[in-house]
Amino acid sequence: MSQQSCTAFCASKGMPLAGVEYSSECYCGYSMSNGASNTTLLASSKCAMPCSDKTYSESCGGAGTLSLFENTALYPTVTLPTGWTYDNCRTEASSGRGLTGYSFTSDSMTLETCLKTCDSKGFAIGKLPSNSGVEYGRECYCSNAWSNNAGSITTGCNMPCGGAGYETCGAGSKLSTYVKASSTAPRRRGIAGRILVA
């Protein structure tokens, strides 16, 4: 294991993040998960284990710490269906569901699949939460309004979608939420009346 062999391996799999840990372990992904963070910097001494391949005299992480590398050119571009925009990570209801209009699950869930389905059913809010253990990354809920006191803005939506590991599909009791702008402006009622001549 070396930094070069790990980054080359992850790049060959199309994954932009490569991390070496404990001298000989290599991990790849599109995003950090399971509570890990790529924004928390540690002292270099935390990642000072020498790589098992001694050719380069370099460090390969530590015990429970990653020497992390990022290849930004490998991040795929996510194209949302027309009219849909991201609307924050939001809380799920503590009792029942926050979006109750329509729902379905799929092991190959993607943002496009969820949003196009919500669109076809006539709903303007689509979200991909992961609320129940084994169903993470594969649930889609649609509605035109929030229910059961759900929908507060939060953080922590970091679970990869089942069908697209580079897309985010919520987290435990948290929803990656999208809204669709109205295609036509609502009509305003005018005041009907007669012109009176004195």
Fold and architecture overview:
The protein is mainly beta and 198 residues long. The protein has two domains: 3-74, no CATH class; 84-180. It is built from two helices and eleven strands. The protein has helices at 3-12, 111-120; strands spanning 17-21, 25-29, 67-70, 84-91, 102-105, 125-129, 139-143, 153-154, 160-161, 164-168, 174-180. The strands form three sheets. The chain has a six-stranded antiparallel sheet, covered by helices on one side. The radius of gyration is 23 Å and the shape is elongated. Residues 130-135 and 183-198 have low confidence and may be disordered.
SSE diagram, text form:
Layout lengths: L2 H10 L4 E5 L3 E5 L37 E4 L13 E8 L10 E4 L5 H10 L4 E5 L9 E5 L9 E2 L5 E2 L2 E5 L5 E7 L18
Antiparallel strand pairs: 1-2, 1-3, 4-8, 4-11, 5-7, 6-7, 6-11, 9-10
Please tally the β strands and state the result: 11
| Share of helical residues | 10-25%
Question: What does the largest sheet look like?
Answer: 6 strands, antiparallel
Radius of gyration: 23 Å
Helix/strand class: mainly beta
Give the end-to-end Cα distance, rounded to a whole number of Å.
96 Å
Which descriptor suits the 3D outline? elongated
- One letter per element, helices H and strands E, the order comes to HEEEEEHEEEEEE
**Average residue-wise pLDDT:** 84
Number of domains: 2
Oligomer: single chain
Strand content: 25-35%
- SS field, number of helical segments: 2
- Contiguous low-pLDDT stretches (5 residues minimum) are 130-135, 183-198
Q: Can you list the strand order of the major beta sheet?
A: 5-7-6-11-4-8
